[in-house]
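Minutes, project huddle
Topic: does the predicted pose make sense with nicotinamide-adenine-dinucleotide bound?
PN asked that the exact inputs be recorded in the minutes so nobody has to dig through chat later. Recorded below.
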Amino acid sequence: MSDTLLADANLRLEKALRDVTISQDAIERLTHPKASLSIAIPVRMDDGSLRVFPGYRVRYDDSRGPTKGGVRFHPNVSIDEVQSLAFWMTFKCAVLNLPFGGAKGGVTVNPKALSKLELERLSRGYVDAIADFIGTDVDILAPDVYTNAMIMGWMMDEYSIIRRQFSPGVVTGKPIAMGGSLGRETATAMGAFFVIQSVWAQQTRSPGETSIAIQGFGNAGAILADLLFHAGYKIVAVSDSQGGIYAKQGLDIPSVRHLKESSRKLKAVYCEDSVCSSVDHQVITNADLLALDVDILIPAALENQITAENADRIQANHIFEVANGPIASSADTTLEAKNIQVFPDILVNAGGVTVSYFEWVQNRSGFYWTLEDVNDRLQTKMVEETAKIQRSPKNSPSPSELPRMFTP
Ligand code: NAD
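Predicted holo structure (tokens), as shared on screen:
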């Protein structure tokens, strides 16, 4: 890996550019973020003291439209991280042919150590500091790590107060009552599901004969596991930060989800009643899960899980990146040599930004869609763009050839 995350991202850009014809001017432009803002956000704490948190907003490129990207609240947030995430958002929006450029934002903070009121003051303070940098037709915010619909609601409200007008289009991922879109919560998993279905429709192996291991059982991983299970795939392993479970004959995902949600830990699934007694399974580590001999491996937890150190142990023939950046660039050569097909995060997890785009469109028109409309349009978009970027697009099924699924 290079010295900085942005330099590492640029290494991958250089490699991808070997396969396309693009002017030197455009390459030069894409190598640098258009604008990076560093701010200091003063927050009055509950005990009366004042603390100042560092924050950032980066607009990487706006040649395709207003920039779009999430806001992350995390202790490790740095300008380098925000710039590299804004870089990836630029390409994600382009891959999905959305009329957006890429952006990202963040605050260096441990949000778990703040009270709810402190979190609200921080969220509003962040928007106060970047208000001149963002806008419905300029730069649009969204949730990311440790930010959610409630925080997006505060941010949209603060921006509306500053502008003296209701401005729902400046933030996506809002609560439904404040102009959010139906289907946004499940969009990332649903989008990944459509990509997998679309790719797998060209394989001779049926879903029932296809084994899948999923690392990460949170919002994206657990909903995707459920969708794949109901479509007949054999989910043989899942894991969370505590470890994983493996059953060669396949796991009963609805039971695993139920137990995980009631206990908040996958660990509770290991040896308590239903799954434990009904399915013969093994407890495995996250390292074991990545190395399982499965047809499809889905990293849906954290970045840099597959690196030069463990790439040699990967046995799956297909990897669908649901997490952002789960494969370090240092692993690329080994995976290529092993002929493992990798479907990248900028396509596979782009369902989230696609439904964010739908939310922005609904906010601008003031006309709100049904859940069926949202999922139908998402399926069309994901299938079309998957087909376009595959090597043999003529072999891909059309959206109408795939089964429709409206609920996770
Ligand atoms: P989440 O916090 O809901 O879930 C993360 C899961 O990963 C949890 O089950 C957690 O226990 C597990 N995990 C944490 N550390 C782990 C470790 N060391 N090994 C194995 N598992 C571990 O997060 P999420 O929203 O599901 O996001 C997961 C990934 O998908 C992230 O990379 C995120 O950037 C990406 N993503 C999510 C969305 C979305 O809309 N949720 C959109 C695009 C990309």
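Observations noted during the meeting:
- The domain at 187-348 is CATH 3.40.50.720 (Rossmann fold).
- Residues 188, 215-221, 239-241, 286, 300-302, 322-324, 349, 352 surround nicotinamide-adenine-dinucleotide (CB under 6 Å).
No decisions taken; revisit at the next huddle.
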